[in-house]
Amino acid sequence: MTKNSYHIPVMLKESIEGLRVAEGGIYVDATYGGGGHSDAILQRLGSGKLVAFDQDDDAGKNLPDDKRLIFVNHNFRYLKNFLKYYGLIPADGILADLGVSSHQIDKSERGFSTRYDGPLDMRMNRSAARSAETVIRDYEIERLASVFRLYGELRNARRVAGIIAETRENLSIDSTHKLVDALKPLAPRGRENKFYARVFQALRIEVNDELASLKALLEQATEVLKPGGRLVVISYHSLEDRLVKNFMKTGNFEGIQEKDFFGRQISPLNPVLKMQIPGPDEIRDNSRARSAKLRIAEKTDKEK
Q1: Contact at 8 Å (CB) between 246 and 257?
Q2: Roughly what angle, to the nearest 10 degrees, separates helices 141-151 and 157-168?
Q3: Predicted model pTM
Q4: 164, 136 in Cβ contact below 8 A?
Q5: Quick one: which of 21, 37, 189, 197 has the most CB atoms within 10 Å?
Q6: From CA 219, how far away is CA 229, in angstroms rounded?
Q7: Average pLDDT of 40-64?
Q8: Rounded CA separation 14/289 (Å)
Q9: Is 297 exposed, middle or buried (0-12, 13-18, 19+ CB in 10 A)?
Q10: CATH: 3.40.190.10, 3.30.1370.20, 3.20.20.210, 1.10.150.170. Which one for 109-208?
Q11: Are 48 and 23 in contact (CB under 8 A)?
């Protein structure tokens, strides 16, 4: 397995420039994956330290022999605990590429893609008890509908949940193609792929508790970054991007601006630059970059 086959890093140049790596600094790659972003950080790091998180065991097979790199085989929601353990607070910068890696999508046994028939898994951490199959099998209709409505933003979430409940009475929905087949009557003609992508997105977010993990990362970032430290986040759908945008702008996930006694906005972060998207050349070379959005913020001198 080569790094190029594992994952093509999205918006590599823009994200590394936004991180503003300084020699001798302390940095975090919250989503190591194939190591593309980490490699670029290490090239600029000098004698500094890089802590890389990834809960997927496969990512640990892809590590360079570099003493400056500390690999943490856990979810990035434990950011503060591990930085404290290694004595690496405050940090100079944190980068998170929230996308599913090409390696995970292209391995049929991981169950992330509708293109391949495989077990209905979708676990980033394969030791976790909950999989997409257990969600489909065990959740009651209303709970299933809530997952599809909240995380897939499906208008017909109740019908999707209903047809799943009806199908599972006679058939075990334990593979990606069995799920796709069950939902074919509801797939809009000409927009089938988008519909299935939203169904799979919703299940993946539920299985991995992704939004709660992202919230934990953002909140802890403000605690571990030094004033002037950078937070760089690449997101791939509106649910992620909304949380990132609101938090970087206001310091909360609702986007509510709070002000001090003098009417000055209170927020631990200050957005820098405008939201960036991949250029046409990158999208042509890597179609999975097409929905990416890059946001960068800097920790303010005064905390909320």
Answers
A1: no
A2: 140
A3: 0.92
A4: yes
A5: 37
A6: 14
A7: 94
A8: 13
A9: buried
A10: 1.10.150.170
A11: yes
